[in-house]
Amino acid sequence: MTRPADHPAIPSRKIGVLLVNLGTPDAPEPGAVRKYLAQFLSDPRVVEIPSWAWKPILHGIILRTRPKKSAHAYRQIWTEDGSPLAAITGRQAASLQARLGDGVLVDWAMRYGNPGIQTAIDRLFAEGATHILAAPLYPQYCAATTASAMDATFAAIAAKRWQPALRTLPPYHDDPHYIDALKRDLDRQLAALDFVPERLLLSFHGMPQRTLDLGDPYHCHCQKTARLLGEAIGSPVDIAFQSRFGKAKWLEPATDAMLAAYPSQGVRKLAIAAPGFSADCLETLEELGIRGREQFLAAGGTHFARLDCLNDSDEGMGMLDALIRRELAGWWPPS
Ligand SMILES: C=CC1=C(C)c2cc3[nH]c(cc4nc(cc5[nH]c(cc1n2)c(C)c5CCC(=O)O)C(CCC(=O)O)=C4C)c(C)c3C=C
Ligand SMILES: [Fe+2]
Ligand SMILES: [Fe+2]
After folding, report:
1. Going by CA atoms, what residue is nearest to atom 38 of ligand 1?
2. Residue among 267, 277, 137 at smallest CA distance from 197
3. Ligand 2 center to residue 186 CA distance, Å?
4. Closest Cα to atom 42, ligand 1: which residue?
5. Is 256 a domain residue?
6. 219 C-alpha vs ligand 2 centroid, how far in Å?
7. Is residue 5 part of a domain?
8. CATH code assigned at 47
9. Which residues make up the binding site for Fe(2+) (predicted)?
10. Does residue 262 lie within any of the structural domains?
11. Ion ligand 3, residue ranges at CB < 5 A
């Protein structure tokens, strides 16, 4: 039977993949940073304080003081292609698109700032995606990151009459593809150093201690990644948590405290990696690579190397390619 001429178009099956990362300001300027922080820190998944108590602190104190300080930090790591986090996520999407070929539409989005999740979902939709795999690029599950990205993705399709089928990439903190990619990538970077580190420190983004007590698996996921990576590398690794924010107790040990203490414990040559970040960003390039280095050297350290995240390296993209293909099974490739 032929379709009547006035009948709406019926889409054929098309697969979309949406890579999602945290977000970043549009420019390393206080105004742009304020806008980004306002969106980020108003997310109840990120700051779990009742809004009546948090809003006055956010708008009365934090958004008046932090944007200037953070803009200064962003300026030190900004590139010709913009914020490293956005630039690298864009390259990861382009590389994945090349690996998967034209049969799959690959796009990317930021949970906060641009390009937003709604924009990316609408674009995939306009390009005809009927099936979408949303892939938050967080190996370790955390409500503040993974769940927040999923909330925004679900919200982005909520108003659609004909919703796409939706799948989500599960956390991959203990996936052999991830551990193996990290091992090979770190082995390569360590072998290229002009010194032999006495210790490898794995620094993960911190979280309030309360989130662990409330049942967030993030802390356990970080510990498991560190254990498996240490076993794969074949030497002991240390673990620490960075980027403390606010006055509450955060997960410990703290990265800055470890960096300051190492030299007095006889560790003067250090390598630091941040396996919880899929892409280098403010927290790795500035906090670890600039301020962390200064702290370690000021405390008596002599050699310091910040190792890159997986980014769009062959190891990182091979892993992402394998994880995404596995999650697309049954949808793609067509049988
Ligand atoms: C990798 C996982 C991340 C978790 C977990 C996380 C939790 C978390 N973060 C804040 C506050 C801030 N984080 C900031 C930057 C930032 N955070 C992550 C990742 C995680 N955050 C990334 C990748 C980045 C870098 C963004 C970039 O543009 O490069 C910032 C902004 C920067 C600054 O002003 O210092 C804040 C603030 C909280 C409160 C939190 C958990 C509750
Ligand atoms: Fe953060
Ligand atoms: Fe735990």
Report:
1. 46
2. 267
3. 23
4. 46
5. yes
6. 14
7. no
8. 3.40.50.1400
9. 205, 283
10. yes
11. 219-220
Pocket probe mutation, ligand 1, options 19, 20, 21, 22, max atoms within 8 Å of Cβ: 22
Complex ipTM = 0.91
Cis bond leading into 253, ω under 30°?
A: yes
pTM to 2 decimal places: 0.96
Q: What burial class does residue 101 get, using C-beta atoms within 10 Å of its C-beta: 0-12 exposed, 13-18 middle, 19+ buried? A: exposed
CB 89 within 8 A of CB 108: yes
Tokens standing for 5? 């001429």
Domain that holds residue 89: 15-172+315-328
| Residue from 255, 282, 290 to probe ligand 1 pocket by mutation (most atoms less than 8 Å from CB) | 282
Q: Which ligand ends up closest to the CA of 22?
A: 1
Residues 154 and 44 occupy one common structural domain: yes
Domain count, the chain: 2
Residues 39 and 164 placed together within one structural domain of the fold: yes
Ligand 1 centre from 334 Cα, in Å? 38
Per-residue pLDDT of the chain (335 residues; tens, 9 = 90+): 677 888 887 778 999 999 999 999 999 999 999 999 999 999 999 999 999 999 999 999 999 999 999 999 999 999 999 999 999 999 999 999 999 999 999 999 999 999 999 999 999 999 999 999 999 999 999 999 999 999 999 999 999 999 999 999 999 999 999 999 999 999 999 999 999 999 999 999 999 999 999 999 999 999 999 999 999 999 999 999 999 999 999 999 999 999 999 999 999 999 999 999 999 999 999 999 999 999 999 999 999 999 999 999 999 999 999 999 999 999 999 88
Q: Do 43 and 162 belong to one domain? A: yes
